[in-house]
Amino acid sequence: MKTITGCILLCLLALNTIAQTGERKRRLDEIEVKDSAGMVYPTVVVQKLLMTGKYTIRLNAASQTGLLVKLTEEEINKRNERLPRPGESRFFKTGEKISSFTERDIRGNKYNLKELLGKVVVLNFWFINCPPCRMEMPDLNELVENYKDNKEVVFIAVALDEKYAIQDFLKTNPFQYNIIDNGRYIASKYGITSYPTHVILDRQGKVNFHTSGLATSTVPWIKKSIEAALKETVPQ
Length: 236
What we know:
Helix content: 25-40%
Number of strands: 13
Shape: globular
Number of helices: 7
Strand order of the largest sheet: 11-10-9-12-13
Strand content: 15-25%
Radius of gyration: 19 Å
């Protein structure tokens, strides 16, 4: 729990300070943030919107106010290209294979990592009462949508929760990954203690990306890593 709380605090601290040209850095709670219609947004709402990576704040130094602006698709893509790679998790090593597991998802579909060699496997470790896990789900759903017609990419989410709890959660919180329930033993197998944790396995079953916690750069780098892995030669 301490690790999870720490991830949340680090994310909020990173977002809570924004640069102001020619002056000291300003904190979100020191300025009034409005949209183009003049609606004032609470700091906590602004933090959540910034975390999606789809918004920015344009500061007015004279009035010490900020204008909340939704970025265009082109602006988002340009910004994503500049985002630094998120820090690696403590649980995996880039370039190494991980031990396999065989399990069924909540719809009864069977997954065996050994049988998925030749495909790009995108793993997400999460649980229902993990705030950053829930915050990133809309962006992860968009990612799944982008690859819905590509059978070479497999999205698997290992949840710690029981099947009935997940099914109830999904009624109001859609998550498009293939979800394995009651996955504590899988998470413990890899020593995972921070959530969410993301891992991407290339066509040879080797780790080409892994990270823990929530960051603006996480999903863009998951997509970059998927694209890089897809370009690799399929092992014979």
